[in-house]
Amino acid sequence: MTQFNFQSLPDLAGQRLMLGFDGQTLNAELKHLIKNYRTGGIILFRPNIESADQLRRLCMDARKYALDQGLPDLFVAVDQEGGPVARLRKPFTEFPGNPHMKTLEDAREFARITASELSDMGINMNMAPVMDVAPPDVDSIMKDRAFTGNANRVSQLGTAVIHGLQRGGIMAVAKHFPGIGRTVKDSHFFLPELDAELSDLKQIDLVPFEAAKKAGVSGIMMSHILYPKIDPDWQASLSKTFAYDLLRTDMGYQGLVMTDDLDMKAINHDMDTCIQRIMAAQIDMALVCHAGPNIAEARDAVMRYLENDREMFESGRTCVKRIIAAKESFFG
């Protein structure tokens, strides 16, 4: 692993970003994100994937290029939950998804095979498992993506997936903290609200995330949901109350914390505001998953806050130390 310069503002800023891009090769756009923006990670979607050979070449080339630029190895992430959210399709193994996992062996088999296939491609992070609890009496937005059962059952199956992925060399990211299983609107298109007290979340929704923490999950993704009885002003992904006070301090989670995609419609703030909130909450990584002006705006905002706010510079170095430690633990 490259010796990291914790005094370099561009490097500190870039490691806080996980970015999407257009194309299926190490093209000029992707080189720009790595060389000039110093990005800490990239995330892949269906348009980035044509075949196994192409995907392997893309991932390996991007990771090597980062190292050649004096950067730590890249996070190369993908959403491979199975079912409706699986970026890798045939010839990769297609699983029916979390609602169809009935036994621990089902979960272990999914994790073992998925880890092997992702690792073979050069992918090192899976934005899975979904740890949301979807009650049967709610028309949950997550009903086709969540494990079936109560919080304890979700915890059992989810931690089996976490252990299996990470034993196979793939960093697991539990989502969507603090739980969106009781929401009915899609944060890709709306800002959903969940009118729950913190005591309600602790009784149900937070149980699987506590289990994920105990299982050593590499990352936790924040939801874009507004919980007005807990933080009336900011959705969880922009909320110090949720990311720092609840997840870091109260629950004691020491792994990576990241936002969901800041390009979603649930984010009704400009990018500068988003980055200010993310850095104040000491969220490690901001996801901007689609090519466009939001990427440049996010990077510029991180640079500006690191340069002009001493407290954000120091907390930012702490976040990047956590990112580098995670990379070293998985990539050596």
UniProtKB/TrEMBL annotation:
Q: Which UniProt keywords apply?
A: Glycosidase, Hydrolase
Q: Enumerate the GO terms in the molecular function aspect.
A: beta-N-acetylhexosaminidase activity
Q: Which reaction does it catalyse?
A: Hydrolysis of terminal non-reducing N-acetyl-D-hexosamine residues in N-acetyl-beta-D-hexosaminides
**One of this protein's GO BP terms?**
peptidoglycan turnover
What are its E.C. numbers? 3.2.1.52
The kind of enzyme this is, by top-level EC class, is hydrolase
Origin superkingdom = Bacteria
Which residue ranges does the record assign to the Glycoside hydrolase family 3 N-terminal domain? 25-293
Task: Report the InterPro entries cross-referenced here.
Answer: GH (IPR017853), Glyco_hydro_3_AS (IPR019800), Glyco_hydro_3_N (IPR001764), Glyco_hydro_3_N_sf (IPR036962), NagZ_Beta-hexosaminidase (IPR050226)
Pfam families attached here?
Answer: Glyco_hydro_3
Homology family: Belongs to the glycosyl hydrolase 3 family.
> What PANTHER family has UniProt attached to this entry?
BETA-HEXOSAMINIDASE, BETA-HEXOSAMINIDASE-RELATED
Name of this chain's protein: beta-N-acetylhexosaminidase
Originating gene: nagZ
